Amino acid sequence: MASSVTVRAPSSTANLGPGFDVFGLALDAFFDEITITKKGKGIRIITSDSIPVVPKKNTAGVVVTELANKFKIKDGIEVKIKKGVPAGFGVGSSAASASAAVVAMNRLFQLDLDNNSLVKFAGAGEKASVGSIHYDNVAASVLGGFVIVRTNPLDVIRIEPPSDLVLCIAIPDLKVPAKKTEVSRSVVPKIIKLADGIANLSNAAAIVAGFMKKDPILIGKSVKDVIVEPVRQHMIPGFKQVKENALDAGANGVTISGAGPSVIAFTTKSSNQKKICAAMKRGFASSNTNCQTIICRPCKGAIDL
Ligand code: HSE
């Protein structure tokens, strides 16, 4: 049996507008890499990144500890972490670490976990770092492609995205609060108007149809959220301008990536992504905010890298 396994897990975007906590998409923008080795005693985290190294405070450490307890693993475990996904920007950083950890543990100790169990353990790890449980980012990061998350019981449906779907992400240079996801979840309404539910449901259904029909324009044009985006956008300086500029430059749809503050534009291979990125940059600049822009594509997940 191997004594060491390395797994890379991708960044992801959650929600895709109307699919709050339900939709996720794996993106090849950034990757986390985790190597798990049977070594020494107990669980030890090794990293040169500025992240906690105490296992119970580290997303990957929490996943490894949970699995070691659940499967009564007696070996010492070294967890080497290389962060590539920026933390706190809505591109699935904690989810990538949790996903890489669960997939590496599954391989190294031959745990034989099925896809839903992998997602469940990764979700528990992410909960430890962001404070709330939602499986959209971890499901995308573990399984890759576009995912639909159903809960009670957890059941994830994966759809292969169209090859001509291209995304532009603008990551603003902002100081994000320590508990950013918790803060941005606290503004989401508990009760919504039926008309808003209908609007989001129709667009969410159209996004699923877009992925099934491999139609990137239908996907982009359905990225419309009347429930969460309106209450979160004030946390992103310049959001309205970034969105308007990207749409004017040819994007099919624009929304907040996950809990923000990154903004994501949905485009196709034939769109002018450089123009769209420049337009998003100008949008942020109108609120005196710099941003990094990335052109990326949907990608495979940690299990099949
Ligand atoms: N669905 C979650 C949210 C994703 O929007 O709060 C967090 O990355």
What does this structure look like?
The structure is a single chain. The protein is α+β, with helices and mostly antiparallel strands and 305 residues long. It folds into 2 domains: 4-159, Ribosomal Protein S5, domain 2 (2-Layer Sandwich), CATH 3.30.230.10; 165-296, 2-Layer Sandwich (Alpha-Beta Plaits), CATH 3.30.70.890. 36% of the residues lie in helices and 24% in strands. It is built from 10 helices and 10 strands. It has helices at residues 59-70, 93-108, 115-130, 136-143, 180-186, 194-212, 216-221, 229-232, 239-248, 273-285, and strands at residues 4-14, 23-38, 43-47, 77-82, 146-150, 155-159, 165-172, 253-256, 263-268, 291-296. Strands 1, 2, 3, 4, 5 and 6 form a 6-stranded mixed sheet that branches. Helix 3 (115-130) packs across helix 4. The two termini are 20 Å apart. The relative contact order is 0.18. The model has no long low-confidence stretch (mean pLDDT 95).
In short:
36% of the residues lie in helices and 24% in strands. With 305 residues, the protein is an alpha+beta fold. The strands form two sheets. Strands 1, 2, 3, 4, 5 and 6 form a six-stranded mixed β-sheet that branches.
Descriptors:
alpha+beta, Ribosomal Protein S5, domain 2, six-stranded mixed sheet, four-stranded antiparallel sheet, 10 strands, globular, binds L-homoserine
Largest sheet: 6 strands, mixed
Uncertain residue ranges: none
Overall average residue pLDDT: 95
Q: Would you tell me which CATH topology of the largest domain applies?
A: Ribosomal Protein S5, domain 2
Helix content: 25-40%
CATH architecture grouping of the largest domain: 2-Layer Sandwich
Structural class: alpha+beta
Gross morphology = globular
CATH C-level category of the largest domain: Alpha Beta
Order of helices and strands: EEEHEHHHEEEHHHHHEEHE
Number of helices: 10
Proportion of β residues? 15-25%
The quaternary structure here is single chain
Ligands in the model, by name, code or SMILES, are: L-homoserine
Through-space gap between termini: 20 Å
What would you report as the Rg, rounded to the nearest angstrom? 19 Å
Structurally, the number of domains stands at: 2
